[in-house]
Write a structure and sequence with these properties.
Layout: E1 2-12, E2 15-21, E3 25-30, H1 36-47, H2 68-73, E4 89-99, E5 104-114, E6 120-128, H3 147-154, E7 162-165, H4 168-178, H5 185-194, H6 202-209, H7 219-324, H8 327-372, H9 385-404, H10 413-460, H11 468-481, E8 488-489, E9 495-496, H12 502-509, E10 516-517, H13 523-533, H14 547-550, E11 566-567, H15 571-581, E12 585-586, E13 598-600, E14 605-608, E15 611-614, H16 627-664, H17 668-677, H18 681-703, H19 707-791, H20 796-832, H21 844-854, H22 858-904, E16 910-918, H23 923-929, H24 947-961, H25 964-971, E17 977-985, E18 988-991, H26 992-998, H27 1002-1019, E19 1028-1032, H28 1040-1052, E20 1056-1060, H29 1066-1069, E21 1075-1081, E22 1086-1093, H30 1109-1118
Parallel strand pairs: 3-20, 3-21, 12-13, 19-20
Antiparallel strand pairs: 1-2, 1-4, 4-5, 5-6, 6-7, 8-10, 9-11, 13-14, 14-15, 16-17, 17-18, 21-22
Helix pairs in contact: 5-27, 7-19, 7-20, 7-21, 7-22, 8-9, 8-18, 9-10, 10-16, 10-17, 11-13, 23-24, 24-25
Length: 1136
Amino acid sequence: MKWMKRLRLINWHYFYDETVEFGKQTLITGKNAAGKSTIIDALQVLFVADQRQIKFNAAAHDEAKRTMINYLRGKIGTDRQTFVRHGDFTTYIVAEFYDAHKREPFVVGAVIDVFGDQDFEPEYFILSGVRLEELEFVGPSGELLNREAFRRRYGGSGRNRAIFERNKSTYQRALLARMGQVHERFFRVFVKALSFQPIQDVRTFVYDHILDEQKLRLDLLKQNFEIYERYKQELAELERRRDKLLAVRERYQEYAKWRDIVLEQDYVIRRLKWERVREVLAGLEQELRRLDEKLEEAEGEIALAKAKQEEAREDAEAALQRWQTHEAERRKKELDAIIRERANSLAELRRRLSSAVDRLGRELELLGGLAGWSACDGWQWREGEREVLERVRESLAAVHGRLAREERVEGAVGAALAEAGERLADLYQRAVIAADRVAEQVREAEERIADLERVIRNLEQKKRPYPESVERLKAMLEARLGQRSPVWIFCEEMELKDEAWRDAVEGYLNTQRFDLLVEPRAFVEALSVYEWEKWAHRLEGVGLVDTDKERKYLGTAEPGSLAGELEAPHPVIRAHVEHLLGRVMKAADEQDLRRYRTAVTNTCMVYHNLVARQIPKRHYEVPYIGAKAIARQLEMRRRELEDLRARRERLAAARRELDRWAERLRDKPSLYAALAEQTALPAELDAVKGELEAAEREREALLASDLFGQVERLKREYEAWRQAEKEWGARYDQWVRRQAGLEADRRHIEEQAGRQRQAAQEAEAEFQAWRLEYGPEAENRALARWEDAVRQGLPLARKLENWENNRKGNETRRNQEWDALRELRRQYNMEYGFDGPVDSEDNGAYESLLHDIEHLNLPQYREKVEQSLRESEEEFKSHFVFKLREAIHLARREFDELNYALRHFPFSEDRYHFEVTPSERYKKFYDAVMDPLLLERGSLFDHLQEERVQALHELFETLVRGEAGDVEEFTDYRRYLDFDIVITSRDRRTRFSHVLREKSGGETQTPFYIAILASFYHLYRSGKTVRLVVFDEAFNKMDEQRIRSSLRLIKQMDLQLIAAVPDEKMQHMVSEVTTTLIVTKQDDRCFVDLIERGEEGAVVDPAAGVGAEEDVERELSSGRGNGGREEPVPLQETLF
């Protein structure tokens, strides 16, 4: 066995350097927050190592907030400081054990370097054959050895004698081995014992502390079942492929039947077409002969009509000559020509007269509108112009009235119209000039509007409009001076105090408002830039202030001067204000001016050098000084913009009006000259009327004379011959058209006959091609259908139509069968990766494949399927079922041993017993697996109607087909068992599962400790392991009897107890333990005192005076090592 003797803590929380001694049963007590749990947590760091598993101050449960870094630095949390330790330092937690079997000590420890940035690096070590007091932690300089130095000092003792490890997992494995090959469940049980949590579920406790998980491998079972499934699928796949290929064969046979029917019908149709074409050709040749006879008749009729028409034409021409050469007829034609010419002249004169009247009417309307037109921008009537226009309009109105009545116009009308034209021409010139002048005014207004809009945009962006020369020079200076000096515009850098004096200040300064200023140190350079650039950039007139010399004026302004009305925080600007306005005094009125050498009133009257002068308004009407100047400028510019826009609209309207009148007055002299000429039209009209009336009277007299009767007779004779000529011409045309129609018919029939001869050759060729392609055998089969066609008493055309319609239906059926066949082939190829020809006319490739499948040894495949199933079943039975049953048997044996121990270690009057029963949820599987007749069965799955065989079958299916979670559930042998703790007290038996629901306090705490002790006893089954059990805040809800019973049980189990207990429980425990330690805290420092040693002494080793192992065991029992007492450990000061 291995016993823990001592624990040394250096720089651990409030422990500076403290050595704690342990007996076989050790109690640690003290007031709250004295440091009891600090010792327990140090043991966690030492024995668990992995901070993911450690739970500091475990007895506080979920309220614990301690961390590793807080323990290392010693967190205080007071106002004066946060930690006991600061900067870089090293912490040691070292425990000494005694191995009674090997009769040697060994040390387990942790050395931790802590750094100022809150980081830390732990390293764990196990040193064999070394006592705690033999280790040196302090170097020659008097300071603690750091991690590297400690490892260099003790790490060279040999691989088996000294182990240093930074990897926590590797350290845990080494620690378990050094503790006597303890199971890794030690860490979980150790932490759970510290963090007391009553058992809420017995199964969870059993899983965590008693029964280990065992993985039952299913690889071979699944592999055999997969082979079975594969063979089964392959057999089913072969049968499916055979069925699909049989479907392809059946579909091909159906397709071939309809293909042959269509082929035979094609023979009949081709032969019928040939016969039909020959029949049509015979009819066309007969029609050609008939048309030839009709054409011969037409030629005779055409020749007769042509001769008669020519004879009538000659007689008509002779009659026409006699008629046209008669004297009366000739005079009639002359008179008709004169009448037409005079009528046309009369109509033209009236048209011109009407046009002149209309034009005069429009001119009257124009003159009336012009006389009533009032003046507009750019146009004013001159004196007497409107009266002259009115007289001209009256003259035109008189002319207009006479011309409208076709009356002659008397007097000097032409001169009056010419004068009117000249006057209107003068008005036209004036209108054009006025329109151009107004257009220029519109353009100027638009330019000014654009300038104002730009200025307003700049003002809205707080940019004042300055002369371009000012802005150019400012930009040049800013670019040259850069960060060395700002460039100021004078008016922007000051503010007016009283708006009443704005006009006076603005007007007095005038252009000086735009002076540019720079820092005094930059003036010389700025002046050079100005001089150099002034001509190239047209910078004349810009003021650049000598701020260097002007500094002397700062603070020189006289009280009451105009400078007092300006605020300028910057001294450079203020100096310029006082220089310019510091001696310009404010006068109350014009009379007050005379009191000063230089003064100004708020109405802008200036008095200087004995001269008074009013400042021009243009000098101050646009404000520039201060922030309010922008608002006032905006207001002024917006008002000006609004006025300008209204003026622009007014000017634009005037221009349109002037343009309209100029257009209407254009070319008036030429127009009025033409109107003057047209006043002679009524006289010309009267002359033409007289000539027309004379010609009409002469014609009427000629038509009434006897001489004209002879003319009428000659006319009728001519018309008769002309009628005969027309009739014979019509007859000629009729027969010519008939001849053309017959010739066209003949050409058409000839073309048809030619096509039919070609069609006959093609039909014969197609028929012969069929015979050549399919041969005599196919023709013999088709002749039967031909005989059927011959026997039908129908015309050839009807027969052909019937056979073609029937073939179309059969072709549709054939194509449907073909498409279905191709789809079956395509599906087969895609499903099985076969490259058979989908569009092949024969079915050879698929027939060959079907032949191969039909001749496979399918019974052999079925035997493979059955064999693989048997192998899967055998693996299920021999591996899984039997190993599951074996695991359950071993679990029961494990609990038998545990219960054996519990029977021999009764707890007071109570006895505890773990009850293991088949799980209610998995009972059917449990009964099937544990069935003793299982070995005698042949196949597990014979007689499926039996309940247990059905359960095995369900379990088998779950394992080979189930999801991962299901497989994990059913392969855990612990699932098949239910667990409970039976408490026997005298004659009463109680199940712990019932106690959980009904009771609390000590009655529920006791099973926890019993179960934990049983877990440790189970872990320490070997006699060569440690026996350590650690509790924090132990037995706090138990009564006196249960506490004593628990401590006696620990002794009976031969376990080494270390327990932190509350003060109030000490009186019930002291008599049952060997060692009592009291932890005290004073001024952020903890101490441990060994107050009392019980009857059984502390753990000793042979070096202390005992030479044999049995003597050591006696010493552990008697507590008399080293004379029965031990020197008290002196108080150790800090090592730093």
